[in-house]
Amino acid sequence: MLKYFFSTLTQCTTKTYPLQILLNDIQAHQTSVDSINDAGKDVISSEAGAGATSTRNKLDRLNANWEKLLNKTKVRTHAAGSELWCKNQGTNL
How many domains does the structure of the chain reveal? Predict the structure, then answer.
């Protein structure tokens, strides 16, 4: 039983490890996204009218895409681990 557990753990780790590295690499850029948001807010407060609206729209788009990227990577990592677990338990998702 213990051998089976470690075999399963190794398979899960091998499958999810590249995705976890990707997630970590993506999350490492969070400070850059935060810096862009801070700078964008400064620009918006100093601009008026169409310029401020354009900057706000670009920041909103950046943040929406950033969240999609984070969520998609987390979902893939979780799905890969779940898929392996179910296969090793003799079930399908």
Answer: 1
